[in-house]
């Protein structure tokens, strides 16, 4: 029987970043378990991968803000950046979208209002007769999800962590000093279990006999399309989340921004959603999109209030899940928050200054 100081279940960016922070904080013999044969298969590696100030619910925006300087610190460690500048252009093309833009997006500090003419100057592919209003986020960036994940993986291993792939948890039960986890070939005893398994987290809570959170997984489709793009074009986003588009090398990345509920599993793109994404972008641009190079789908998992869950569900059994579409952009701050909360330590000052308060993320808020 193996004994671990902490066991993190889930090998995506959420689990890997938390595991690295726990190891850096001095947890001995930490172990990360991943049910699949490879890490970061379902969500992290399929992300549109952006860092957008002002994105998400109020608690999520605080984590995004707190992650900015931490991305820079991680870049200094790694010797290369994980963020590359790409401003975001919020576009309203209907009366309903303009209402959303003015009521929900423009009041946010990071967002600057643009006239329709200014929006077209910044993304010339926009049809001038289609734009009613626009907003601009200058400090937005493309992110490198695989590079970030690999860096956290190196940090975890350097601190003495063990990674086991192809290791699904098939049983969990309280033990005399914490929890016992059953794996197909052996078991683990640990003081602390951290469930960071995305859409599978509720199933694991149920396996442990703990109350579930009501997490819901949604499919999100992305297509890579041949188009006349400029490398410095912005990340253009419908104000009402009806579509988004941004350069991807010499191609254009396009999504219909759909949220199709699904059970935990391997998300597959739907041809109708791919076509819908092209149709929606075509309706407001002069791009004339036709040729799809490739497409894929990812899985985004939300708590009922669309805010990350961090904290113990029952003693010794904690959850870090429900990042939704913000897993990459919040990872540095979310992992630091989780390590502090789960080890009973003060929340770092830089997180507090950005408005990160543990109670806003604790699972008890969902009771």
TrEMBL record:
Enzyme Commission numbers on file: 1.4.99.6
UniProt keyword Oxidoreductase, yes or no: yes
FAD dependent oxidoreductase domain sequence ranges: 7-340
Species for this entry: Actinomycetospora corticicola
Keyword Transmembrane helix: no
Gene Ontology CC: cytoplasm
SUPFAM superfamilies reported in the protein's UniProt record: FAD/NAD(P)-binding domain (SSF51905)
GO MF annotations in UniProt: oxidoreductase activity
EC category name: oxidoreductase
Cross-referenced Pfam families: DAO (PF01266)
Entry keywords, A to Z: Oxidoreductase
The name this protein goes by in its record: D-arginine dehydrogenase
């Amino acid at each position: 029987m193996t004994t671990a100081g902490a066991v993190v279940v889930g090998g995506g960016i959420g689990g890997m970043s938390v595991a690295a922070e726990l190891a850096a904080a001095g947890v001995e013999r930490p172990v990360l378990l991943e049910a699949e044969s490879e890490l970061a298969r379902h969500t992290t590696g399929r992300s549109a991968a952006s860092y957008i100030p002002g994105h998400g619910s109020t608690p999520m925006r605080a984590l995004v803000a707190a992650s900015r300087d931490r991305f820079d610190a991680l870049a200094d460690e790694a010797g290369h950046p994980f963020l590359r500048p790409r401003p975001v252009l919020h576009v309203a093309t209907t009366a309903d979208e303009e209402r959303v833009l003015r009521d929900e997006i423009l009041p946010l500090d990071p967002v600057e209002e643009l006239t329709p003419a200014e929006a077209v100057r910044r993304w010339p592919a926009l049809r001038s007769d289609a734009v009613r209003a626009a907003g601009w986020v200058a400090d937005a960036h493309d992110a490198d999800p695989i590079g970030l994940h690999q860096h956290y993986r190196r940090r975890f291993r350097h601190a003495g962590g063990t990674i086991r792939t192809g290791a699904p948890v098939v049983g969990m039960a309280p033990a005399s000093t914490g929890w016992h986890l059953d794996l197909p070939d052996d078991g683990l005893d640990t003081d602390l279990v951290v469930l960071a398994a995305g859409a599978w987290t509720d199933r694991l809570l149920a396996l442990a006999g703990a109350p579930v959170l009501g997490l819901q997984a949604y499919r999100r489709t992305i297509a890579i399309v041949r188009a006349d793009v400029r490398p410095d074009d912005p990340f253009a986003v419908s104000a009402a989340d009806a579509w988004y588009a941004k350069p991807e090398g010499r191609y254009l990345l396009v999504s219909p921004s759909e949220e199709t509920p699904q059970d935990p599993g391997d998300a597959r793109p739907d041809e109708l959603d791919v076509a819908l994404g092209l149709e929606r972008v075509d309706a407001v641009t002069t791009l004339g999109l036709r040729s799809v190079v490739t497409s894929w789908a990812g899985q985004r998992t939300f708590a009922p209030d669309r805010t990350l869950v961090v904290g113990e569900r029952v003693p010794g059994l904690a959850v870090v899940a429900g990042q939704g579409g913000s897993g990459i952009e919040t990872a540095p701050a979310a992992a630091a928050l989780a390590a502090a909360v789960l080890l009973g330590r003060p929340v770092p000052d830089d997180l507090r200054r950005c408005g990160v308060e543990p109670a806003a993320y604790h699972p008890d808020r969902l009771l």
